[in-house]
Design goal:
The complex is a heterotrimer of chains A (about 270), B (about 220) and C (about 220).
Chain A (H helix, E strand, L loop, with lengths): L1 H16 L6 H8 L1 E7 L7 E2 L5 E2 L1 H13 L2 E7 L4 H6 L5 E7 L2 H4 L3 E9 L1 E6 L14 E5 L3 H13 L3 E5 L2 H10 L4 E5 H10 L5 E6 L5 E7 L4 H16 L2 H9 L16
Parallel strand pairs in A: 1-4, 1-5, 8-9, 8-10
Antiparallel strand pairs in A: 2-3, 5-12, 6-12, 7-10, 7-11
Chain B lengths: L7 H43 L1 H12 L2 H15 L6 H27 L2 H9 L4 H31 L11 H12 L2 H32 L1
Chain C lengths: L7 H5 L2 H35 L2 H16 L2 H13 L7 H26 L3 H9 L4 H16 L1 H14 L12 H12 L2 H30 L3
Helix pairs in contact in C: 2-3, 2-5, 2-8, 2-9, 2-10, 3-5, 4-5, 5-8, 6-7, 8-10, 9-10
The chains are: A alpha/beta (about 270), B mainly alpha (about 220), C mainly alpha (about 220).
Family (chain B): Belongs to the binding-protein-dependent transport system permease family. HisMQ subfamily.
Membrane topology (chain B): Multi-pass membrane protein
Keywords (chain B): Amino-acid transport, Cell membrane, Membrane, Transmembrane, Transmembrane helix, Transport
C-alpha cells in the first residue's frame, strides 16, 4: 500500500515537473512566431529589394506557412552551409531554403515532401564553342559550393576524368568568373540563369542547354524528430498546390509557364 | 567605372556593415586585451612549467585558422550544446580569445623587457608586488608593448572579415550582399578594401611613430 | 542539451582525403614563403636604392599588404586580375595572394632587422672594394635573414593559416577546401572541422618545432 502511494506520488511529481511534451509545432503556435531560415543570395527564391529587405519565392512561402499556422513570420538570413547549424541551435524553426532532399542530408535533418523543383541549365561563356551539355567535358566548369548542381557537376568532371571543377562561394562569383572567362561553363537553375543573362550585368554569357540531371527536388527542413511539424508542413505543401497558390507564386517570382510537377510517377511520396 | 547603381540606402547599408566590423573589433579587442593581460601576467608570474596548460590552450588559438575556429565554435555551441546563441556572440567570443592569445604574448614580452634589477630595486625600496606592477612595470612595459598591441588590434579588425561565416553581416558580408543584387563586384570590393585601408593605415602609421619615438630614449 | 549524436566514424572515413588536402596546404605555404622572401628582399633593395619610384612601389606594396584583409587580397588576385583578362587558377590565385601578403609583412620585418645592423658595416664592406650589391649580399643580407628568422617562422605559420581563405577563389583541393566540400555533402560540420583543426594544429606545431631545431643548428656561435 505504502509503495503504491509512493509510486503515485512520484508519478504525480513527474507529471508536474514535466508537463505534457510539447513539440515544435506547439511551441511555434504558442510563441506566435515562425522563424524561417532563408538564403537571400539565391534569386528568385530569396534576395533583397532596393531597400535591402528580404523578398522572393521562399520568403513568400514562409509567410504563407506562418499565416496558415496563425503566427507571424520572421525571416532569418542564412547561407547554404549554415542551414543545418541554425536549425539545430534553435535559431530558426524551419528552413525554407531550397534544400535538395538528398539521402545523405536526410541522415541529419528531417525533410518534408518537395515544395519546389528546379531544372538546371548549362550556361557558357560566348567565346566557348558549346552546343550540348556534354561539351562541358574537358572544360573548366564551376558552380556554387555546396549546392545540388555543384555536387552533380563535380561528379561528372570526376567521371569524365578531364577538365576542372571549381566551387565558388556565391552564385554571383560563379557568374562573374564565367563572364570574365575564368570559367568556360556553369550549371545553375534555369531561373537564375535566365535572370542573369537578361540583366546584362554579366556580358558574354549564353544559355546552351538543359542539364540532364533528374529534377532537383527541394523540400522544407526541420529537426529530424519533429514529426508533428513535418506532417503539418507536408499537408501545407499539398494545400499550396491544391489551392493554386503554388502556381501563383511561380508566376510572381519565376515567370510565365507551368510550375514543375512535384510528383514522381510510379512511386509513393 | 563610377557609373553605378549604388543608391544612398545602399551606402547606408554598407556603412552599417562597416559599423558592425568596428563594433565586433572593439568588443573583441576590449575583452581580448583584459584577458590577455590577465593570462600574460599569470604566465609570467607562475613560470613556464605551471603555465603549460594555459600556454597550450592559448597556443591553439594561434595555430588553427580563424575561419575554422569560428565554424567549430559555432557548430559546438549551437548544434552540440544546442544553446540559443547569436552568431554575433559566437564571433565576439572567438575573436576575444583569439585576441587574448596574441595579447598574452605581447604582455609577457613587455613584462620581460623591464629589467629585473629595476624591479628588485623597487621592491627593496618597500614597494609591494602590486605597487611594483602598477608603478614600475606597467609604464615601462606599455612602452614596449603598445606598438605591437596596436598592430594586434588592426590585425583583429582585418581578421574580423571572417565572421561572415557565422552570419554576422559585417563590412565584407554587406558588400557581398550588395554584389549579389547590383552585380558590380569589382567596384564594390574596391570601396570595401578602401575602407579597411583608410582605418588601418593611419593607425598603423601612428603605431610606427610611437615605436620610433619611444625606442629613442 | 546534448541531443547531438556524434558520428566520428563517418567523418574519419574522410581522413585520407583530408590528409591529401593537408599536403596541398603545406605545398602552398612553402611555395608562398619562398616567393614571399624573394620578393621581400627585392622590395627591401628597392627601399635601400634611394630611387623615388622604386621606394614608392615598395611602400605601396607593403602598405596594401599590411592594411587590408588577406581575404580581400586573395579575392582581388583572382577576380581583380580576371577583370583585366589575366586568368589564374584557384591554386595560383591563392598562392600569389598569400605570397603578396607574405612579401609585404616580411619586407617590413627586414626593414626592422636592417636597423639593427650598424651602417658602418656597409661602409667597411665597400671600402674593402665590394660593390653595393656584393656588400648587401655578402654582409648585410645574411645578418638580416638571421635577425628576422623568428618573424619568418611566424609568417610561415600565417601562410598555413591563410590557405584556409582559398575557398573564396574556388580552391577545393587544400585542407580547408576538402573539409568544406565534405561538409556540404554530409552536414557533419563539427566532426569534420574538428578533425581539420587537429591537422592544422599538428602542421603548425611541426613548423615551429622544426624552425627551432634549424635555428639551433644555424645560429650557434
Amino acid at each position: 500500500m505504502k509503495t503504491s502511494f509512493l509510486a503515485v506520488g512520484v508519478l504525480a511529481a513527474a507529471t508536474v515537473a514535466m508537463p505534457a511534451q510539447a513539440d515544435k509545432l506547439d511551441d511555434i503556435i504558442a510563441s506566435g512566431t515562425l522563424r524561417c531560415a532563408v538564403v537571400l543570395d539565391f534569386p528568385p527564391m530569396g534576395s533583397r529589394d532596393a531597400d535591402n529587405n528580404p523578398i522572393g519565392f521562399d520568403v513568400d512561402y514562409c509567410n504563407d506557412l506562418a499565416a496558415a499556422l496563425g503566427v507571424t513570420a520572421e525571416i532569418v538570413e542564412t547561407t547554404f552551409p549554415e542551414r543545418i547549424p541554425s536549425l539545430m541551435s534553435g535559431r530558426v524553426d524551419v528552413a525554407v531554403a531550397s534544400t535538395s532532399d538528398t539521402l545523405e542530408r536526410a541522415k541529419t535533418v528531417g525533410f518534408t515532401i518537395p515544395y519546389y523543383s528546379f531544372e538546371n541549365a548549362v550556361v557558357a561563356n560566348e567565346k566557348v564553342e558549346m552546343a550540348t551539355w556534354e561539351d562541358m567535358k574537358g572544360k573548366t566548369v564551376g558552380a556554387t559550393a555546396g549546392t545540388y548542381e555543384a555536387i552533380w557537376l563535380e561528379g561528372k568532371v570526376k567521371e569524365w576524368g578531364e577538365g576542372e571543377f571549381r566551387p565558388y562561394q556565391t552564385q554571383a562569383d560563379v557568374f562573374l568568373a564565367l563572364s570574365q572567362g575564368q570559367l568556360d561553363a556553369t550549371v545553375a537553375t534555369v531561373e537564375v540563369s535566365e535572370a542573369n543573362v537578361k540583366s546584362g550585368n554579366f556580358p558574354g554569357i549564353k544559355i546552351v542547354d538543359k542539364a540532364p540531371m533528374v529534377p532537383d527536388y527541394v523540400a522544407l527542413i526541420t529537426l529530424r524528430e519533429e514529426y508533428g511539424l513535418i506532417n503539418y508542413m507536408n499537408l501545407f505543401i499539398n494545400q499550396q498546390v491544391r489551392t493554386g497558390r503554388y502556381a501563383e507564386l511561380y508566376k510572381k517570382w519565376v515567370g510565365e509557364g507551368e510550375p514543375a510537377n512535384l510528383t514522381i510517377p510510379g512511386v509513393y511520396r | 567605372m563610377f557609373d553605378t547603381a549604388l543608391t544612398r540606402s545602399d551606402l547606408i547599408f554598407l556603412a552599417q556593415g562597416a559599423g558592425m566590423t568596428l563594433i565586433v573589433t572593439a568588443i573583441s579587442v576590449f575583452f581580448g586585451t583584459i584577458l590577455g593581460i590577465v593570462f600574460g601576467v599569470i604566465r609570467y608570474q607562475i613560470g613556464p612549467w605551471w603555465a603549460a596548460p594555459l600556454t597550450f590552450v592559448l597556443d591553439i588559438f594561434r595555430s588553427i585558422p580563424l575561419l575554422i575556429q569560428l565554424v567549430l565554435a559555432n557548430a559546438f555551441v549551437t548544434t552540440v550544446l544546442g544553446l540559443r546563441i547569436s552568431g554575433f556572440t559566437v564571433a565576439c567570443g572567438v575573436l576575444s580569445f583569439y585576441t587574448a592569445a596574441y595579447c598574452a604574448e605581447i604582455v609577457r614580452g613587455g613584462i620581460e623587457a623591464v629589467p629585473q634589477t629595476l624591479r628588485r630595486a623597487a621592491r627593496s625600496l618597500g614597494l609591494t608586488w602590486g605597487q611594483d606592477m602598477t608603478s614600475i612595470v606597467l609604464p615601462l612595459a606599455t612602452r614596449v608593448a603598445l606598438p605591437s598591441w596596436i598592430g594586434l588590434a588592426l590585425g583583429v579588425m582585418k581578421d574580423s572579415a571572417l565572421v561572415y561565416i557565422v552570419q554576422v553581416v559585417e563590412l565584407l558580408k554587406s558588400t557581398q550582399i550588395l554584389i549579389t543584387r547590383l552585380q558590380e563586384p569589382l567596384f564594390l570590393l574596391m570601396i570595401c578594401g578602401l575602407f579597411y585601408f583608410l582605418i588601418s593605415f593611419p593607425i598603423a602609421r601612428f603605431g610606427g611613430y610611437l615605436e620610433k619615438r619611444w625606442s629613442n630614449d | 542539451m546534448f541531443n547531438y549524436n556524434f558520428r566520428w566514424n563517418q567523418a574519419l572515413n574522410s581522413l585520407p582525403q583530408m590528409l591529401e588536402g593537408a599536403l596541398v596546404t603545406m605545398e602552398i605555404a612553402v611555395l608562398s614563403m619562398a616567393i614571399g622572401i624573394t620578393i621581400a628582399i627585392v622590395l627591401t633593395l628597392f627601399r635601400l636604392s634611394g630611387i623615388r619610384a622604386l621606394s614608392a612601389v615598395a611602400a605601396t606594396w607593403v602598405e596594401i599588404a599590411r592594411n587590408t584583409p588577406a581575404l580581400f587580397q586573395i579575392y582581388m588576385v583572382h577576380f581583380g586580375l580576371g577583370g583585366f583578362g589575366i586568368h589564374l587558377s584557384p591554386y595560383l590565385s591563392l598562392l600569389i595572394g598569400i605570397a603578396f601578403n607574405n612579401a609585404g609583412y616580411l619586407a617590413e620585418n627586414f626593414r626592422g632587422a636592417l636597423k639593427a645592423i650598424p651602417e658602418t658595416q656597409t661602409r667597411a664592406a665597400r671600402s674593402l672594394g665590394m660593390t653595393p650589391i656584393q656588400a648587401f649580399h655578402n654582409v648585410i643580407m645574411p645578418q638580416m635573414l638571421r635577425i628576422s628568422f623568428l618573424p619568418m617562422t611566424n609568417q610561415m605559420v600565417w601562410a598555413i593559416l591563410m590557405t584556409s581563405l582559398g575557398a573564396v577563389v574556388a580552391m577545393n583541393t587544400d585542407l580547408y577546401g576538402v573539409t568544406s566540400d565534405l561538409n556540404a555533402r554530409t552536414f557533419r560540420t563539427f566532426e569534420l572541422f574538428a578533425i581539420a583543426a587537429v591537422i592544422f594544429y599538428l602542421i603548425t606545431k611541426a613548423i615551429t618545432l622544426s624552425a627551432r631545431l634549424v635555428a639551433a643548428r644555424l645560429f650557434r656561435y
